[in-house]
Design a protein that fits this description.
Largest interface: A-B, 65 and 62 residues
Shape of chain B: globular
Order of helices and strands of chain B: HEHHEEHEHHEEHHHHEHEEEEEEEEHEE
Helix content of chain A: 25-40%
Largest sheet of chain B: 9 strands, mixed
Helix content of chain B: 25-40%
Mean pLDDT of chain B: 86
Number of domains of chain A: 5
CATH architecture of the largest domain in chain A: Alpha-Beta Horseshoe
CATH superfamily of chain B: Alkaline Phosphatase, subunit A
Oligomer: heterodimer
Structural class of chain B: alpha/beta
Chain lengths: ~700, ~500
């Protein structure tokens, strides 16, 4: 026991020496990391002396047998607390008034404790000094503790002002930039060192006046050139720079916060700058906008609790109830149009009316039940009544929505009357009203009366969007017929005028109007377009329709088609079927090396006046118009003469895929035998990658009329 | 004997894995959940709790509630659309400096080329909007809405061919098999409207050179198959086999479904395969869709002013314009993820003509969609994205001519635009060098892009996971950073 006491004795002695050493040589101290870590124990051990000093004093008066031990332990722990506290205080960048007061109070307590211990050990009978010391100790330990509390929890921790800690809760819709945005950032990141107590660099950032006042190295805001303000320079220096603020070991400003401070300073660093004064392109604008949105999350924190059970009970196939985010009591309710919709289901939602922030009845026939219900939703901020057929009378039933900010009412029958009502909503900011009875005058009047309010009537940029009609479509798409054909010109829009010509001339508004289907009895070239007021007329489309006498009684191809494209055989030439755009389809056949020579024969003489070859041109895959077309005919096989000769024009440039009809007309002639010879292109022109090679001739129909 | 299939009727038959998974799902999650989320028993988690999920989503208040992704399949050239590079016109025909290419791998289509002649845009560019953003003359309507949109010129990907690139963009992985983006959103956030799927796909095809589309791009991968994208076709039957055969009444159908699900439930109790539950859910969804889909797909209800806005092509089913208008109707009806695919953007040759045609298909309708959403107040919570799977080279593929040229695939940089849904307006983000080849500022990788999209929906991309084959998968897998600069 004696041995242990002796150890404690020495420990107390060593601690006193150590503490004294620290205090004397504070300025020269360079703490190794481990020692710094010891300082972290201060908040833990400090509780011992607070209790033990009081207990020791008590035991002294009770004349407790173990008083020696109490005194021993208390003195040692008090010294340890003071030492760890001192080490901890070196961690922070600067000691403000608060810490210094706490430090010297704490050190005094420790020394007093040591003195008492020393007196007691030397002369246990001494009476007065211990009593004095005890009295001082009890008072001082309370005061020291209180200061310590202020260091960790803030100056006004014990004050009774009830100030709102989270500034964000009270963020208004148009916050004052300094009060609501900048000051909280400074408080959060800077004021720890730059306050009235610490005032590092003699700079205080806790209020507007102090910010404007100069620090040790001059004013931090340069009122001549805000961009050169010292405040901006020190927060934007690289982290490694010694003058970078906050110091690298402290919590840093975020990019958003830096951007906000820049915005604020560049706007004059005044206390009355408002969010609405910022330009939308200002980087601070978007950030504050987000902060406002975030603060809404807090705004909804007072809503009544809603359980998942209740939500699923009230939900149905067409009523959706969604939380704004995980475990939020703020609800969005969407009622979707549905065949089984019944307004009675809406009344059941009354129990959650207070929680509804957004409500949509888009597409629902809104009647009294729904309107009554809307009236109950006191916290409603956004209401969608588009496509509901609601009118002014209906709207007048929901006048008392105090928190309404946004109303969608497009595609409805409301008129300017509603604008008066909208003006009365205290928080209102946006109205969506396109395709309704709201007039420009009404909008202008309201814009003057309530400048902050926007009314979206239509998408402005849309006004110079083109609105060209698509051309009509022919149904069926006839190309070849024998006796007669019917074609109807259709258009996907209603109330369209379709004008057409059949003689190849360009149709206009004086041309024939297509009403019913057209009956076609002879070959013609149909040109047509669609027109309608308010739209640009469609492009003119055209289609060739050929009458054919059909298949000869017998016919034969002298040369077979190229083996790669034989189609489904020579019958395709007279099947009255048009091949599609894809030339590998079986309705097409092709010739390249050898000419297309068709010999046709009729049992009886026929009168013909034209031969049309239906072909395709597409230069990329070498599909060219042929070199020449020769038509011969006669009543005897041995006596045929040329009826027509056609040498199609050579192409000058690349052409995309399109159908081409090679028409050979001649005076009517009686024949029994006909020979059609087509020589594919000999040499592809120089501009084409395949120059000099032979071209392809594709054919899907021979029309003889 | 021996002929009948042996059916185990033991109701208590549970294999080891199911036993443990059920046990842990019960006790484990209860205990752990209550520790980790103190409020767990106070209220359920938002989002999907009604559908039996407890993901706790969204993690924070979302900016966007739905996406309309206008995917331009085949990769439109950034150099003829959003990324203006006058230097290429100045140095037309000169070889691409090796220092710029930097040994970049090429596709098999141009790796044999002896020269890589730079080629400038055939079409002109004009400045639009408050910031004077350059947009090509192929996209005059996009130019008109440039103050509404956010252009990202610094997208980059890893894949150099269509299939891996499009798979990467849609699923976050180049090799197929992972769930597509839309499925992740559906899994995370569920459907708003119970009568429609939460993930819908619409396809259209331009006249340009096109690459295939395949249903794997909207597959749910290893996620529950109810999150798979539903392809709505144009024309009379938007969903194949959705309509009842003649003579079958709605009541008959109901009875049939009830009986089938009884059988399915029995089977489920025997084998405990979750896909059986999904199948039951899908039958029910189809039943509800019978009522809702024809209504949503009926464009005749749209007023003429809207048709004019989107362009008259919107009247022709199956066109991009019609799909864009449908997308808006679907969004109004609570579909979360609407993906349009427009094919035909693969201009290896004949670029000027094909691209002008492709642009004609999409320009007005895309801009109209943004404006239409805006005038309905839907743009603020609907994210519209327009873009392809990679970019195109600044040099010519094939025969070089300033009037007719082609561009090969280019993964190192490409441009997209986004609008609404919590994305900054009127912003041009990122930059490529003056050759339009390499990114020199603010690159956005596909993983970053995904992370940002999820963030806009209130989802932490690192926390939306699904455990499969022993590890937790994410859309962004092991990468991705939210691009905060894009957020409004």
């Amino acid at each position: 026991m004696i041995f242990l006491k002796r150890i404690l004795d020495y420990a107390i002695f060593a601690c006193v020496i150590l503490l004294t050493f620290f205090l004397v040589f504070e300025q020269y101290l360079e703490m190794p990391a481990f020692v710094g870590w010891l300082g972290r124990w201060h908040p833990l051990v400090l509780h011992f002396p607070i209790v033990l000093i009081l207990v020791t004093v008590l035991q002294y008066w009770r004349k407790d047998n173990y008083f020696d031990w109490y005194l021993n332990l208390t003195t040692l722990l008090t010294l340890i607390t003071a030492i760890t506290g001192f080490i901890l205080s070196l961690e922070g960048s600067a000691k403000g008034n608060l810490i210094l007061t706490h430090q010297w109070l704490g050190v005094s307590v420790a020394y007093l404790m040591a003195i008492w211990y020393w007196i007691y050990m030397n002369d246990r009978e001494k009476y007065l000094p211990p009593i004095l010391i005890q009295g001082i100790l009890v008072v001082m330990i309370v005061v020291t503790g209180h200061y310590g509390g202020m260091v960790t929890h803030g100056n006004d921790f014990l004050s009774f002002s009830g100030k709102d800690e989270a500034g964000i809760t009270t963020m208004p819709d148009d916050p004052i930039v300094f009060t609501h945005i900048i000051q909280p950032i400074l408080n959060d990141k800077c004021v720890k060192c730059h306050n009235a107590n610490k005032a590092k660099g003699e700079l205080i950032l806790s209020d507007m006046e102090s910010i404007v006042a100069a620090g040790k190295s001059g004013a931090i805001i340069d009122h001549n050139d805000f961009g050169k303000s010292k405040l901006l320079a020190s927060i934007s220096l690289p982290l490694e720079d010694e003058d970078h603020m906050p110091p690298s070991e402290e919590e840093q400003l975020t990019n958003d916060e830096i951007a906000l401070i820049f915005s604020w300073v560049s706007h004059g660093a005044t206390g009355d700058l408002k969010f609405s004064d910022l330009d939308i392109s200002d980087p601070g604008h978007a950030i504050i906008d987000k902060l406002i949105a975030d603060s809404k999350t807090y705004r909804w924190s007072g809503l009544p609790d809603i359980s998942d059970d209740e939500i699923s009970k009230l939900s149905s196939n067409y009523i959706r109830i969604l939380r704004f985010y995980n475990r939020s009591d703020a609800l969005q309710v969407i009622v979707y149009p549905h065949k089984n919709y019944e307004s009675s289901g809406i009344s059941e939602l009354r129990s959650i009316a207070d929680n509804i922030i957004e409500l949509s009845f888009s597409g629902i026939p809104v009647q009294n039940d729904e309107l009554d219900f809307i009236g109950l939703c006191q916290n409603l901020e956004k209401l969608n009544l588009s496509n509901t057929g609601i009118d002014d009378e209906g709207m007048s039933k929901i006048k008392n929505l105090e928190k309404l900010t946004e109303l969608k009412i497009y595609n409805s029958n409301i008129t300017d009357m509603v604008l008066d009502q909208v003006e009365e909503y205290p928080q209102f900011s946006r109205l969506y009203a396109y395709n309704s009875g709201i007039t420009e005058e009404g909008i202008n009047r309201l814009a003057k009366a309530k400048p902050g309010l926007s009314i979206i009537k239509s998408a402005e940029a849309a006004e110079d969007f083109k609105s060209v009609l698509p051309p009509p479509t022919a149904d069926p798409r006839v190309y070849f017929f024998s006796e007669k054909a019917r074609v109807k010109l259709n258009h996907p829009l209603q109330d369209i005028d379709i004008f057409y010509t059949t003689d190849g001339s360009i149709p206009d508004e004086t041309s024939d109007k297509a009403v019913d289907s057209l009956e076609i009895i002879e070959s013609l070239k149909l040109k047509f377009y669609a027109s309608r007021s308010g739209w640009e007329p469609s492009q003119i489309d055209s289609m060739n329709i050929y009458k054919t006498i059909g298949q000869p009684d017998s016919y034969v191809l002298k040369n077979p088609p190229n083996p790669r494209f034989t189609g489904r055989g020579e019958s395709l030439l007279f099947d009255k079927e048009k091949g599609p755009g894809d030339f590998s389809d079986s309705t097409w056949m092709a010739f390249r090396e050898e000419s297309f020579i068709l010999n046709a024969e009729w049992d009886r003489e026929v009168t013909i006046s034209s031969v049309v070859l239906s072909s395709m041109v597409h230069t990329d895959p070498y599909l060219f118009p042929p070199e020449s077309i020769r038509i011969k005919g006669g009543t005897e096989k041995s006596d045929m003469h040329f009826l027509a000769v056609l040498d199609p024009e050579k192409l000058e440039k690349r052409e995309d895929r399109h159908l081409r009809f090679f028409e050979c007309t001649f005076d009517p002639v009686m024949i029994r035998y006909l020979e059609i010879e087509v020589q594919p292109l000999e040499r592809i022109p120089m501009w084409h990658p395949g120059k000099g090679e032979k071209g392809w001739f594709f054919i899907d129909e021979v029309v003889i009329e | 004997m021996g002929e009948d299939k042996h059916i185990n009727k033991d109701d208590f038959k549970v294999n080891r894995r199911h036993f443990f998974s059920k046990l842990s799902a019960g006790i484990g999650t209860l205990a752990l959940g209550s520790l980790m989320i103190p409020d767990l028993f106070k209220k359920g988690s938002g989002g999907l709790s009604q559908s039996g999920y407890t993901l706790g989503l969204p993690h924070f208040a979302p900016k966007a509630k739905r996406i309309i992704y206008l995917f331009q399949a085949g990769a439109p050239s950034q150099l003829e659309s959003l990324d203006y590079k006058p230097l290429l016109t100045e140095r037309m025909g000169e070889d691409l400096p090796e220092s710029i290419r930097g040994g970049q791998r090429l596709t098999g289509m141009t790796s044999n080329q002896e020269r890589f002649p730079l080629v400038g845009s055939y079409t002109g560019f004009k400045q639009y909007g408050q910031n004077g953003t350059w947009v090509s003359d192929y996209f005059p309507h996009i130019g008109k809405i440039v103050d509404e949109i956010c252009i990202v010129k610094s997208m980059h990907t890893e894949a150099i061919n269509h299939d891996p690139a499009i798979t990467f963009l849609q699923t976050g992985n180049q090799i197929s098999g992972r769930p597509s983006m839309g499925s992740w959103f559906s899994y995370g956030l569920g459907s708003e409207n119970q009568n429609l799927p939460s993930f819908v796909v619409l396809t259209s095809r331009g006249k340009g050179n096109s690459q295939g589309l395949y249903s794997k791009l909207w597959s749910s991968g290893f996620l529950d198959s109810r999150h798979q994208g539903v392809l709505l076709r144009s024309g009379k039957d938007p969903v194949l086999y959705l309509n009842d055969p003649e003579g079958v009444t709605r009541e008959d159908k109901r009875e049939m479904l009830d009986n089938i699900s009884d059988l399915n439930n029995q089977h489920y109790n025997e084998v405990l395969d979750d896909e059986i539950q999904s199948r039951i859910a899908q039958y029910e969804m189809a039943y509800r869709m019978q009522m809702s889909v024809p209504e949503v797909m009926d464009l005749k209800q749209e007023p003429e002013s809207i048709i004019k806005l989107y362009g008259a092509e919107a009247l022709i089913p199956g066109t991009y314009a019609a799909n864009a208008l449908l997308a808006r109707r679907l969004a109004e009806n609570g579909v979360r993820f609407i993906q349009l695919y427009h094919q035909g953007w693969d201009q290896h040759g004949n670029l000027p003509k094909e691209m002008s045609g492709q642009a004609m298909d999409v320009d007005q309708a895309s801009a109209a969609l943004v404006l239409d959403l805006k005038q309905r107040g839907m743009l603020e919570d609907t994210l519209v994205i327009w873009g392809g799977e990679f970019g195109r080279t600044n040099y010519c593929q094939g025969r070089f001519s300033p009037e007719n040229y082609g561009r090969d695939h280019h993964p190192r940089s490409f441009s997209i635009w986004m609008a609404g849904g919590g994305v900054k307006q009127g912003l041009s983000y990122g930059e490529t060098d003056e050759f339009g080849y390499n990114i020199i500022k603010d690159p956005v990788h596909i993983n970053d892009f995904h992370a940002t999209l999820l963030h806009l929906f209130g989802i932490d991309h690192e926390q939306l996971t699904f455990k499969y084959q022993g590890r937790r998968f994410r859309l962004t897998d092991v990468a991705g950073n939210v691009v905060n600069d894009l957020l409004a």
